[in-house]
Amino acid sequence: MKVLLSLLKEFAPIDGEPDSISEQLSELGLTVEEMVRTGEHLEGVVVAKVLDLRPHPDADRIQIVEVDSGDGKPLQICCGAFNMSPGDFVPLATVGTVMPNGMEISRRKLRGEWSNGMLCSSAEINLGEDHDGILILGSESEQGTPLADSLGIESDVLYDLEVNPNRPDAMSLAGVARDLAAYQKAPFKIPVPKAPEKGKNVSEILKAEIISPDLCGRFMARVIDGISIQDSPQWLKNRITALGMRPVNNVVDVSNYVMLELGQPSHTFDLDCVKDSEFKVRWASDGEEITTLDGVVRNLTEQDGVVTDGLGSPIGIAGVMGGASTEISESTSTVALEMAWWNPSAIAKTSRRLGLRSEASARFERGTDPEIIETAMQRFCELLGPEAFLSPGVIDEKGELPAREKIKVRVSRVNSILGTELDQKEILEILDPIGFKAESVDQDIDVKPPSFRPDTSTEIDIIEEIARLYGYERIVKTVPKSKTFGSLTAKQSDRRLIRTTMMGLGLDEAMPVPFLAPGELENAGLESDGIKVANPLVAEESIMRSSLRPGLLKTLAYNESHRLTGLRLFELGHVYRQPDKPQSLPDEREQLVSVLAGVEAGEIVKIWSALADALAFDHYELVVDSPPGFHATRTSRIEIEGRVVGCLGEIDPSVLSLFEVGERVACLEVDIDDLLSIPHGHRSYAPFSRYPSSDIDLAFEVDESVSSNEVKKCLQEQAGSLLVDIHLFDIFRGEPVEEGRRSLAFKLRLQASDRTLTDVEVAKVHGECIESVEKKFSAKLRS
Amino acid sequence: MNQDYDLHLEEAKGKIEESVDLEALKKVELELLGKQSVTTQAKRSLGGLESEERRELGLMLNETRSKLEEMLKTRKMQLESEVRGAQLENERLDLTEFDLGHRLGHRHVVTQTWERLEDLFIGMGYTVSEGPEIEDEWHNFGALNFPLGHPARDMYDTLYVEYGEPMSTLLRTHTSPVQIRVMEEEEPPIYSIMPGRVFRSDTADATHMPVFHQIEALVVDKGITFGDLAGTIEAFTSAYFGKDFESRLRPSYFPFTEPSAEFDIRHPGGKWLELGGCGMVHPEVLKAGGLDPEEWQGFAFGFGLDRLALMRHEIDDLRELFRNDYRFLEQF
Questions:
Q1: Residue in A with minimal Cα distance to B260
Q2: How does pLDDT run across A707-725, given as a tens digit for each residue?
Q3: What is the distance in angstroms between the CA of the first residue and the CA of the last residue of chain A?
Q4: Which CATH number applies to A694-782?
Q5: Which one of A274, A349, A467, A514 is separated from B268 by 20 to 30 angstroms, measured CA to CA?
């Protein structure tokens, strides 16, 4: 919402420097997004008359314009706009002018042609938002006149305010002025418009009926005569432009200005075109059609409101756009002016459905002031000038308006919520200037909220108003002492431990977006039943990931394409899946995926074993498996206590090629919810023997199909309780080991808790281990 | 006699010094102190001498032997030290060859900011709460006092998912639904923060992403006031940004808080920077969370987490956080 300081002053004697007023507006909740001092940069800008136009000999995008800047001599200007014709009056920034953007205009050559100044668009001189063409001034202008004088512009301050959806009243100059006046303790008053009345009473000319009272809370109409459609006077054009709208003609401009000033949109009909001289207001029926002002045929539904003529044909979509059939034109002599209070949600739905959101619909959607209409109608007529007059009398039909009950406000509650010590009198003094009529009743206060504040209907709404006008900054800051122990949950601590472990292993944390393109889950070898986004911005972001794998593969491909290879990445994040059995929300769980590019599966096993160690999972099994998307012969699932918590190995080469990843990729995927639900993280002290230990080294040749883990398990079984440690310390392939076989060398440490083992005992274990492995795996001991 | 032994010592000294390695020295030692050595031979002949003479010669022999031993020992140490020196020289390493920039992995900047904020609030006595990223319409809007068709729903460009009834399930637009979940699950007093990932139907640019992160704080206790809200935000501001930073509240509007405010921070003399939204938990929201608003009062505040990460590291484009270019990830 744009407001000009000078226009606010029409309602209240607002005082203070522009900067401090800006602060005050922000403190009132009308945050100033931008403050512009207008009119100050018009010094040096004069009206010039276009004499001649000709192409620049050496440039297509600029032309040469000859203008008369008041001395009767042609002055050559190079200009990049092409929207003017000889005879037009345009603003000329003369040599030496400092433009609002700080640029100083100098005489200079453009591609070999002199330019003695600059012709200006409205945006360039802060008179509007049009950047495209040069501002064409009215034909009554005179060359040589300073532009400010010609336009009647005085220096002013423009504030662009951010208005929250609960403040429809602040979508008007009057509403903003009311708040500011209250802040400054200045008197506020909406001036009473002077509009002449004569002729027949409106009731003899026009009728109206509300058929659907839930659509329209109040419908008022008056008849205005003595209008001729023409350009608005310059002062009105200036105001309209400054407030961010485009001047059209006097009736449209007045309609817009009344809306900007008082917050009440209006619609005008050519009375002669309204059949039976009657308005009816009702919900449309499905399939009903209307041709709107813009010439488009609109299909209506039961959720749209319409204004119809006496015969029931729609002549306007309620609160959104008028119909073409009753549009005022230059031949219009009598105007029916309609102003109404529309059901906000009806307007919201219709304007959204039809894509016709406007300044007017924005106000109706938030709720206009049903009490301002009468004043707004008079103001409308007043602004049309002394020739315009109203028929006496007002058509005023009532539908359903929201009830405005008295609100009981407890003083104790006010202070309890705000942490203040306000008394009844102070509260009354705060509320009165912003239109809340309040009176003391016993210890408390009864408040009648004003018609222009539809957002206030409960005690807490009033408390907010009290806080706002008292000043948030005056409320003493206190810090409550927490009554809970600040801590992370076990899961949150584990999450940190997982990240720290990954970091320690040299993995960087990636954070791809959780959206995937259609087909990417399938390309990764996963089920195609990912949760779909119903209204995606782009198809590439229309599927929710059911695994972190595709996102990380895309990340690897992206980096590879930038010659960044050998990455070690991890991600810890949510994945979303169709649940196995019906539930209110998708199956959302947390996953850890690590990817190592350019290495084989063995590397990822180290990542897993380190992670398992960090989380104190001392017993897990890697079981050969071939889950989809993984390399068929280089993958195992991870089992802990018989539960599968994830898998590790390499990514299937065909998946890699679909994702355009050229390197091998080793990958670990863990379901964090499953993993962390298994008891872990605690280690009890295990006493160890003080007696000497004995080591046995055993190397066996076994077939490639025999896993080292199987051999290890066999050795563990044989060695039994004397075994305190076993590990695979060497793997050898090649001569003299047969093709298709390899040598696995284990070191076993034997120890008893109560004695030193004898050579005989050690030799027994040694022999049994050899026999057992040789027999079970057709293995051969290497010596 | 004396002169003989002096001569012997002189000779021995030459031999010892000429020994080039430990092996040679060993031979010299055998020659000088072994069975065939001059002194050993002389000792054997002592028995045939008069006591006086024997004592005198014995002393001299012992003295000579200990001198020989001393010389041998010195030379041995010298030779051993040479060997050790040669060995060390042989093992010389250029350590810079090994300084290949071996590095730890790095947590994502968003995670770093997230954890830093968690730690700060844990220090203030808060717990950390979580909720699902795919939410139902009730927790994201309805319970937060956005009735169906409420224009304030337009403030959020919501992404819905195809799950259950149309428009019933969505990608949460803010972390505020976690407030409801916490109130549903826990008895007050509640002092908790809710960091998390949120979604909006925003086209990605330097300051917008369809996915980003927020952190929310919720306090519900007896007698919590707006002053407590302002004070807590001030405490957080100075703890996170620095002691001399200050905060201010400006009136604003959110359906789930009333009174509502935006909060700004600034370095003294600097410009106010809008950080987030806050307010007293709306009575309807307390009710939706199963609490009696006459008994319990509370405040909530929330702000964008990504922006803090951008600010801390002078990153000028939000998209960079999610592009995962290694040249970005490795920096922090």
A1: A464
A2: 898 999 999 999 999 999 9
A3: 91
A4: 3.30.70.380
A5: A467
